[in-house]
Amino acid sequence: MHTQVHSQSRARGGLIAWACLTVAIVAEVVGTSFMADAARHGGHLGYVVMAVALAISYYFLALSVRGIAVGVAYAVWEGLGLTLLTLVGMFVFKDSLSVQQMLGLVMAAAGIVCVTLGEEHTS
């Protein structure tokens, strides 16, 4: 009974860690997107939003490593952030992407999958 309760508690902790990592990724994308907008169009509000969003991102990244290995959390945070920011750049800022850059994103995604699947799962 104690082992089952401990396993359920650990599973909840892992789920919370991944939720924190998701918040960290979204906050990073929001902050960096506002930075790009402020850099391109001026205004200080974008930089304020950037600073707050990136602080939130790092805070939730730190919370996520309580339940996810730091290397895995950082790889997912950086890789998904990069991918989402590239999509924001393409669809919001009308940035273009070369074939080489697209290949790099595919390789980054494959790396994220490998790192995540390689994470130790304890039961």
Key features?
123 residues; 4 helices; 82% helix; flat
Structure description:
The protein is mainly alpha-helical and 123 residues long. It has one domain (2-117). Helix content is 82%, strand content 0%. It has 4 helices and no strands. The chain is flat. The model has no long low-confidence stretch (mean pLDDT 90).
Average of pLDDT: 90
What percent of residues are in strands? Answer: under 5%
Distance between the termini: 14 Å
What would you call the shape?
Answer: flat
Order of helices and strands: HHHH
Q: Major beta sheet, specifics?
A: none
Helical content, roughly? over 70%
- Low-pLDDT segments, ≥5 res: none
Determine Rg (CA atoms, Å): 17 Å
> Strand tally, please?
0
Write the layout of secondary structure elements.
Blueprint: H1 2-41, H2 45-64, H3 70-91, H4 99-117
Helix pairs in contact: 1-2, 1-3, 3-4
Short structural description:
This protein has helices spanning 2-41, 45-64, 70-91, 99-117. With 123 residues, the protein is mainly α. It has one domain (2-117).
